[in-house]
Amino acid sequence: KLKAAVFASGTGSNFEAIMETKHLACEIALLVCDKAGASVIAKAEKYGVPTFVFDAPDKATYEKVIIDKLEESGISWIFLAGYMRIAGPTLLRSYEGRILNIHPSLLPAFPGVDAIGQAFRAGVGTTGVTVHYIDEGIDTGPIIVQEKVTILKDDTEESLKKRIQQVEHQLYPKVINQLLQSK
Ligand code: GAR
């Protein structure tokens, strides 16, 4: 089975959704996390997924360390799931075309942090979820799939977030499986 790593910085609800997927086309063999104490670390431990938590001063150094760890673990794909760092050229070159990201908006609208809040405050009628390949930008790179979420008249930011995350949790594992099975 192909081995993949999830990169995450926070809660890890997308990590959990991936782990709970029956017949996932790959094994999640590593969690990479840049925040000591993030809830996603405890979730990985619950599933018996090895974790690599790092806190390194400069990007070139830490990406080299991460790549060594990925290679040592036999990782061939990377799924970013709430990973709040930009991948640098070192990582991008080593895993070209094999790094996916999920983002809670219809990119190119509302990139960066707090995409759900951004859309809510902008007063748009529709937002959604994007799964895309990454490049050196912030939430840029070729889009694989998008799913729309309507912002309802009585939505709060919280209720909107809940619906968007439900979509994320269905969509990400589905796209991962479709992609890996087509390879
Ligand atoms: C998710 O909504 C994900 O789309 C978003 O962070 C959240 C992480 O939640 N990612 C970005 O905003 C990337 N720019 P989780 O830790 O519960 O999976």
Automatic annotation (TrEMBL):
One GO process term, biological-process aspect: 'de novo' IMP biosynthetic process
Binding-site positions, N(1)-(5-phospho-beta-D-ribosyl)glycinamide: 12-14
Boundaries of every Formyl transferase N-terminal domain copy: 3-176
InterPro entries per the UniProt record, alphabetical: Formyl_transf_N, Formyl_transf_N_sf, GART
Positions of (6R)-10-formyltetrahydrofolate binding: 59, 101
EC number, UniProt record: 2.1.2.2
Coiled coil spans: none
Pathway field: Purine metabolism; IMP biosynthesis via de novo pathway; N(2)-formyl-N(1)-(5-phospho-D-ribosyl)glycinamide from N(1)-(5-phospho-D-ribosyl)glycinamide (10-formyl THF route): step 1/1
Keywords: Purine biosynthesis, Transferase
Catalytic residues as annotated in Swiss-Prot or TrEMBL: 103
GO CC terms of this entry: cytosol
Swiss-Prot/TrEMBL catalytic activity: N(1)-(5-phospho-beta-D-ribosyl)glycinamide + (6R)-10-formyltetrahydrofolate = N(2)-formyl-N(1)-(5-phospho-beta-D-ribosyl)glycinamide + (6S)-5,6,7,8-tetrahydrofolate + H(+)
Site for Raises pKa of active site His, residues: 139
Pfam families with a match to the protein in the record: Formyl_trans_N
GO molecular function, one term: phosphoribosylglycinamide formyltransferase activity
Family according to the record: Belongs to the GART family.
Role, per record: Catalyzes the transfer of a formyl group from 10-formyltetrahydrofolate to 5-phospho-ribosyl-glycinamide (GAR), producing 5-phospho-ribosyl-N-formylglycinamide (FGAR) and tetrahydrofolate.
Protein name (database record): Phosphoribosylglycinamide formyltransferase
Protein source organism: Oceanobacillus polygoni
UniProt gene name: purN
